[in-house]
Amino acid sequence: ITKESIVDVEAMVRKVEQKIESCSQQDVELHIERIFVISQAEPRLPLQLEDAVRPDGEGEEEGRATVNQDTRLDNRVIDLRTTTSQAIFRLQSGVCQLFRDTLTKKGFVEIQTPKIISAASEGGANVFTVSYFKSSAYLAQSPQLYKQMCICADFDKVFCVGPVFRAEDSNTHRHLTEFVGLDIEMAFNYHYHEVIDSITDTMVQIFKGLRDNFQAEIQTVNKQFPSEPFKFLEPTLRLEYTEAVAMLHEAGVEMGDEDDLSTPNEKLLGRLVKEKYDTDFYVLDKYPLAVRPFYTMPDPNNPKYSNSYDMFMRGEEILSGAQRVHDAQLLSERAQHHQIDLEKIKSYIDSFRFGAPPHGGGGIGLERVCMLYLGLHNVRQTSMFPRDPKRLTP
């Protein structure tokens, strides 16, 4: 019988005197009477499962094979059978479930938004254009505009889980051209920090749920990819952007107070925060207005800054969010400042002409959350069938 064939086994289950160390069931064994082959696998497999779960480095020392990433992804169906892949995607399912359950308990409504849209949702050029009958359309970079429209339509708190498309030629360890967005939007009463508190508490509930209910999966992944347990504080640490820049200055980084954070500086800041506060999860608040999208609310006390925030896990950004401009006049001015054609976003701006409560939200990348929680080094490990500038199959 070839490896990886599907079989039915008729056997007696018997207790053993000594524990079987190499199996998950350690105190019983099967005494086989008959085997039925249900589906025969081809004799030559493109990769061996035992090679695919071997920790990096271990195979090299002993002269045994390890499987590279392209081979895994080209033969994803077999790679997904490994104990590591099974654990990763069961945990990912848990993240979605915890996200939905936590927000539903908080009174949020799940919505579904269109993915074929008439104008670029982020106002940038990094969109996929698709032919749409006799004209062109775009694949949505974010459900942003529709979440906001729902807030204007008296859905007080909304969330959605769905695909997001980014036409960025980014061949990095953390970028994909299609990923799953976990998006949140809510009206607030007094201060946009109500939104931050809601999102951070949701993330904390996810981290607790994973810690308490997915230990077996975490340990399985750790066998192949060892990492430190994920640490978080309750309530979540919130730093202002100027404090973060001061910490980086202290560490010898040269950057202006209103410059955006580069990826190396984000990672360095993550290490500095971990040393000082012992947490892998934190919020950076009050970003410079110049580096944020047109719909971001300026800080009323300092026009150079904004009511916007990012959230980080192990020194990498997992959420970008802000209080949104809910006044149609100010929104038009901000769009013009960013040189955006007002005609193209007319229906969006018009949404705010009939009364809109102050509101804010953010978008989280599911695959990135799973990658960073498990301490993995490539987002393709947490994307079931990843799409990037070089990969469109399987």
From TrEMBL:
Catalysed transformations (reactions): tRNA(Asp) + L-aspartate + ATP = L-aspartyl-tRNA(Asp) + AMP + diphosphate
Gene3D superfamilies the UniProt entry points to: Bira Bifunctional Protein, Domain 2 (3.30.930.10), Nucleic acid-binding proteins (2.40.50.140)
Domain annotation Aminoacyl-transfer RNA synthetases class-II family profile: ranges: 89-394
Compartments it resides in: Cytoplasm
Pfam families named in the record: tRNA-synt_2
Aminoacyl-tRNA synthetase as UniProt keyword: yes
Domain of life where this protein originates: Eukaryota
GO MF annotation list: ligase activity
Catalytic activity, EC: 6.1.1.12
InterPro entries reported in the protein's UniProt record: Aa-tRNA-synt_II (IPR004364), aa-tRNA-synth_II (IPR006195), aa-tRNA-synth_II/BPL/LPL (IPR045864), Asp-tRNA_synthase_2 (IPR004523), Asp/Asn-tRNA-synth_IIb (IPR002312), NA-bd_OB-fold (IPR012340)
Keywords: Aminoacyl-tRNA synthetase, ATP-binding, Cytoplasm, Ligase, Nucleotide-binding, Protein biosynthesis
PANTHER family: ASPARTATE--TRNA LIGASE, CYTOPLASMIC, ASPARTYL-TRNA SYNTHETASE
Entries under HAMAP family matching the protein: Asp_tRNA_synth_type2 (MF_02075)
Similarity comment text for this entry: Belongs to the class-II aminoacyl-tRNA synthetase family. Type 2 subfamily.
Job description of the protein: Catalyzes the specific attachment of an amino acid to its cognate tRNA in a 2 step reaction: the amino acid (AA) is first activated by ATP to form AA-AMP and then transferred to the acceptor end of the tRNA.
Subunit (UniProt): Homodimer. Part of a multisubunit complex that groups tRNA ligases for Arg (RARS1), Asp (DARS1), Gln (QARS1), Ile (IARS1), Leu (LARS1), Lys (KARS1), Met (MARS1) the bifunctional ligase for Glu and Pro (EPRS1) and the auxiliary subunits AIMP1/p43, AIMP2/p38 and EEF1E1/p18.
Name listed for the protein in its UniProt record: Aspartate--tRNA ligase, cytoplasmic
Lineage, uppermost ranks: Eukaryota, Metazoa, Chordata, Craniata, Vertebrata
